[in-house]
């Protein structure tokens, strides 16, 4: 769960179990693939500016 911080409007908390996190966090390609799948499958978690197809971040 995300904590309340001054950055809370710019922080996206994504659902990820510890094993997955440990597997992807040090590999940019795996991490990006994971996030891209989340954007595609759960777009409501992300701001409208983030688009799966355009790779806009």
Number of E-type strands? 0
**Uncertain regions spanning at least 5 consecutive residues:** none
Helical stretch tally: 2
- What would the principal axes of the Cα set say about the shape? globular
What's the rounded overall pLDDT mean?
A: 80
What string gives the helices and strands in order?
HH
The biggest beta sheet reads:
none
| Secondary structural class | mainly alpha
Beta-strand content estimate: under 5%
For the termini, the CA-CA separation is: 22 Å
Q: Radius of gyration from the CA trace?
A: 12 Å
Helix fraction by DSSP (H/I, runs of at least 4)? 25-40%
What is the count of structural domains? 1
Write a structural description.
- The protein has helices spanning 18-24, 28-41.
- It has one domain (1-57).
- The model has no long low-confidence stretch (mean pLDDT 80).
- With 57 residues, the protein is mainly α.
- 2% of the residues are buried.
Please sum up the structure shown:
By secondary structure, this protein is an all-alpha fold. The chain has helices at 18-24, 28-41.
List keywords for this structure.
57 residues; mainly alpha
Write the layout of secondary structure elements.
Elements: H1 18-24, H2 28-41
């Amino acid at each position: 769960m995300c904590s309340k911080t001054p950055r809370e409007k710019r922080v996206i908390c994504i659902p990820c179990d510890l094993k997955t996190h440990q597997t992807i966090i040090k590999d940019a390609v795996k991490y990006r693939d994971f996030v891209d799948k989340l954007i595609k499958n759960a777009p409501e978690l992300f701001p409208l500016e983030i688009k799966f197809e355009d790779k806009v971040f």
